[in-house]
Amino acid sequence: MKELEYPFDSSLVLSKYKRLKRTLLEDGATRIKKKVAVLGGSTTHDIIRSMELFLLNYGIEPEFYESEYGQYWQDAMFPGPELSEFKPDIVYIHTSIRNITNAPDISDTTESASAKLDSEYEHFKVMWDKLYSLYDCPIIQDNFEYPSWRLLGNRDSYDHRGMVNFVSKLNLKFAEYAENHESFYISDVNYLSSCYGLDKWADTLYWHMYKYSLCFDAIPYLGFNVANIIKSIYGKNKKSLVLDMDNTLWGGIIGDDGVEGIEIGQETNLGQVYAEFQSYVKKQKDIGVILNVASKNEEENALAGLEHPDSILKKDDFIYIKANWEPKSENIKAIAQGMNILPDSMVFIDDNPMERDIVYTQVPGVQTPDIGKPENYIKVIDHAGFFEVTNLSEDDKKRSEMYKANLQREQAQNSFADYGEYLKSLDMHAVIKPFEELYYPRISQLTNKSNQFNLTTKRYTQDDIAKAATDTNNITLYGRLEDKFGDNGIVSLLVGHKDGNALHMDLWLMSCRVLKRDMEYAMMDSLVAECKKQGICEIYGYYYPTAKNKMVENFYGLQGFEKIAEDDGNTTWKFVITDDYVNKNNAIEVENNQ
């Protein structure tokens, strides 16, 4: 919904809440349902309303528990039956500088100020630890905005009695806790309030009138920020930037101005702006964002622009460069198909509002932000939270290399008449083993990102994965695949729970990067072998249809399962393990625990 895409009109978000919510709920989209407990140190009602809209727009249907005013700590430490029965999937703690009770004063010594800091931090730490023990779910905690005034002037930033100094140190302690605890996330209110303008953010009128810790118009920005963390946890991030070139990656039109006439580099003010933008885009590769180009241009001119000596982005930074005179919407569809991702995983960056509108209407799901003037490109993309990082794995850092290797595989396939011979030529090796702690972050991430090749589309936090892996009643397997072109990383997962001599599949998914390479058969073979070891003789598989996973509706049938039940599209399948089971995978050499 355009009204909820950054940059949005914050006053409209809340004033039109009912209409926006109704429109979202009537759009027929399939959404995952999650319970969010909001524990507040101040009024949270409108924060929850704005979060609800942004989460619905991200494909998440939230149910909220809201603590009584100012009762965040009491609710966490001594939860009543309502919160206990609610069993949240996420806990969000909204606090502000007004909830700090051990602030330093002028009479404090260095030692007493330090003791106050430790006491304040402990007040929160004991609460976080208690929440983990009660609910074992992700926690999002606001850090603190700076004070509205500085008693000591600039000295407030470094004197042990200064509140600015105190807040900085307390925020650092919060950050250290986050670094050392999985599934704990900081909502960076300190940064948000700085961007918004601290004097406006902390307008005291709203505190004294309504007990809001921030001004009314800033509330949607906080709700949007927290919603971005939640959607990232549950795999709703975008995956790819698709970029125009002329007046987007450089100033000018290369077909008219020539390579020497475009603005990029340090020679002009505008050239510096585009160079900074290119540098920002290039850094996105480091967090796993896939870069592509869709430009109305001659391919020769497009490549010449990337070869400009001052261009920071080069040809090798992109997976697909679609530079031609076809509609950009068609090029974007082709890029999505080539990468085996859905169009709604993509963000299209173009300076031309008409081109953005065409793509928006012709390729549903692609986000087309209004990026404004070149000096605002970075701010708009960055603040929009398309690629919010809640976990950064080694596979993320290598994602661009993985997609490049996929292109090489496609090119190699074209030289073989027999597909089986092509698969053997890849020299594929897989590691298939029970979940290992080292890979919990990547395994969790994959459950939340995979939508198309996902039989049940269940989502697991890292804590959920740890529980599944250590439960002796479960069988878990991950699959890692590499070949002569490179390492694909962990690409397939399954989880099943035992019931007597039967195994019921809770999860089976695979990354679309490795479609049609027999990895699904290698996983099936390993599952059967593990079941035999544990005395399992029947496997029950379940398929729950969504708007995105139709490609696997007959997956179990291809594995040799028999369909035994169907209800409104949901299907149940049964596989009987026999002593004469013949391995289905003939192309991949597998290392496992057999």
Structural class: alpha/beta
Which residues sit in consecutive blocks of at least 5 with pLDDT less than 50? none
Distance linking N and C termini: 50 Å
Estimated share of beta-strand residues: 15-25%
Main sheet specs: 8 strands, mixed
Sheet with most strands: strand arrangement? 15-16-14-13-12-11-10-17
Shape summary: globular
Radius of gyration: 26 Å
Strands, total number: 17
Helix content: 40-55%
Give the integer mean of the pLDDT values. Answer: 92
Q: How many helices does DSSP assign?
A: 24
Question: Mind explaining what this structure looks like?
Answer:
This protein is of the alpha/beta class and 594 residues long. Strands 15-16-14-13-12-11-10-17 form an eight-stranded mixed beta sheet, sandwiched between helices. α14 (299-306) links the parallel β7 (290-296) and β8 (321-324). α6 (110-135) packs parallel to α7. The longest helix is centred in the first third of the chain and has 26 residues, at 110-135.
Please describe the topology of this protein.
Layout: H1 10-15, H2 17-25, E1 32-40, H3 45-57, E2 60-66, H4 72-77, H5 81-86, E3 90-94, H6 110-135, E4 139-142, H7 163-179, E5 184-187, H8 189-196, H9 198-201, H10 204-210, H11 219-233, E6 240-243, H12 254-257, H13 269-284, E7 290-296, H14 299-306, E8 321-324, H15 328-339, E9 346-349, H16 353-362, H17 377-383, H18 394-397, H19 399-413, H20 419-425, E10 428-433, H21 440-449, H22 462-470, E11 474-483, E12 486-499, E13 502-510, H23 519-533, E14 538-543, H24 555-558, E15 562-567, E16 570-576, E17 588-591
Parallel strand pairs: 1-2, 1-3, 3-4, 4-5, 6-7, 6-9, 7-8, 10-17, 13-14
Antiparallel strand pairs: 10-11, 11-12, 12-13, 14-16, 15-16
